Amino acid sequence: MHVTSLVCSKCHRSYPPGRVYQLCACGKPLLVRYDLERAARTLTRAALAHREPTLWRYREVLPVEDAAAIVSLGEGFTPLLACRRLAERVGVRTLYIKDESANPTGTFKARGMAVAVSMARQLGLRRLAVPSAGNAAGALAAYAARAGLEAFVFMPRDAPEANRREAELYGARVVLVDGLITECARRLAAEQTAQGYFDVSTLKEPYRVEGKKTMGYELVEQLNGQLPDVILYPTGGGTGLIGMWKAFEEMEALGWIGAERPRFFAVQASGCAPIVRAFREGKAEAEEVRDAHTIAAGLRVPRALGDFLILDILRRSRGGAIAVEDHEIVEAMRELARLEGVFACPEGAACLPALKKLLARGEVHPEERIVLFNTGSGLKSLDLWDSAA
Q1: Domain count within the chain
Q2: Predicted local confidence at residue 385, as pLDDT
Q3: What are phi and psi of 16, to 5 degrees?
């Protein structure tokens, strides 16, 4: 295909493609680079009209070279819902929800795992492992099952039961760990060499972000070549936010868009908001949150490996970071369901109270075109809903 190299996101060291990588030698994430001039010859908006409605329609800017290695369950090209009733309620002109619950396994994690597992298959890897607070576990397990690979999942003992059962049903070996996702990552690292695991943690391999970036390509397609003014994105590890920024840079090089960018706002829970605090304090990296707690399992990430990338994107886009309370998340789940028929996951629902606060502060304006990301289905959080209803 069109991969030219892998480049460190921090020190910019370059690595040749076609080999197995985790992090750069400096310990930071690697990002895939493409020959975009060559890709532009065939990846045109006109050509896309005749391609399958999955993320694989963007093959020229995805890393899998061997078509036989592709592992797919039909992921991508999720609905962009115009939310007129909700827009009227909050007092804005144009409001959309990008509803990632339509993906296989019910969340946006399917995008990243589809590409990561496909690359693992192409590279001859057999034993894949991930620490997960919930949805990444099910996604890895499903795609590994589809590919005939082994999956090992390290989950917090208090992770949602639906996520644990899902991963087990797909055949993954699930290891429950006392503590947060950071403890799960330490447990995986301690066993990695002896067990021969390839770690597909957020940004610890180069390819999950490539699957997530396709959300950015889809937005431009679904908005007829335009960009929204504002994107609110629930941010734990932040791979989707980082991926979309990468997608917009690629699309500019492809000639699809100009130099304009949406203003990104990272949404976190008040009980675990390292990005919000670092942004407010003007720091380039975030400090780890002690005693992180929130009902939104996907936001319970005490420190993100890509924190420096997230913070840079927020500042370059002239956006920001905002935290919301757990009780606001529960109320937003109810409001989204009753006004727009969207049963959002807690992480996605967090974007609604965040928007209300940003409007009240004057940081987002009613006439702007706004996209909220619902990253998964509320059906995976029924235990939470039962306790809150």
Answers
A1: 1
A2: 59
A3: -70, 150
pLDDT for 135 beyond 70: yes
Q: How far apart are CA 244 and CA 178, in angstroms?
A: 33
Amino acid identity, residue 57?
A: R
pLDDT of residue 41: 96
CA atoms in the 13 A half-sphere facing the CB of 184: 29
Q: Residue 315: which CATH number?
A: 3.40.50.1100
Spatial distance between the Cα atoms of 210 and 334, rounded to a whole number of angstroms: 32
What distance separates the 2 farthest-apart alpha carbons in the chain? 57
CA distance 213 to 208: 9
300 in Cβ contact with 293 (< 8 Å): yes
Q: Is residue 56 part of a domain?
A: no
Tokens of 334: 């109810």
Q: What is the pLDDT of residue 387?
A: 57
| Alpha-carbon gap, residue 369 to 95, rounded angstroms | 6
Rounded Cα distance between 213 and 146, Å, is 22
Report the alpha-carbon distance of residue 180 to residue 344 in Å, rounded. 23
pLDDT in tens, 233-256: 999 999 999 999 999 999 999 999
**Kind and range of the H or E element at 94?**
strand 94-99
Question: Residue 332 is part of which domain span?
Answer: 80-105+208-388
User: What is the per-residue pLDDT for 383?
Assistant: 80
Q: Count how many residues are written for the chain.
A: 389
Percent of the chain with pLDDT over 70: 98
Q: Is 7 helix (H, G, I), strand (E, B) or coil?
A: strand
Q: Are 117 and 147 in contact (CB under 8 A)?
A: yes
Flag whether pLDDT at 386 surpasses 70.
Answer: no
Decide if 26 is inside a domain.
no
For residue 374, tell me if it sits in a domain: yes
How many beta carbons lie within 10 A of that of residue 345, not counting itself? Answer: 30
Question: Tens digits of per-residue pLDDT, 139-194?
Answer: 999 999 999 999 999 999 988 889 999 999 999 999 999 998 989 999 999 999 99
- Give the CA radius of gyration of the chain: 19
Domain assignment present for residue 101? The answer is yes
Identify whether the C-beta of residue 34 lies closer than 8 Å to the C-beta of residue 60.
yes
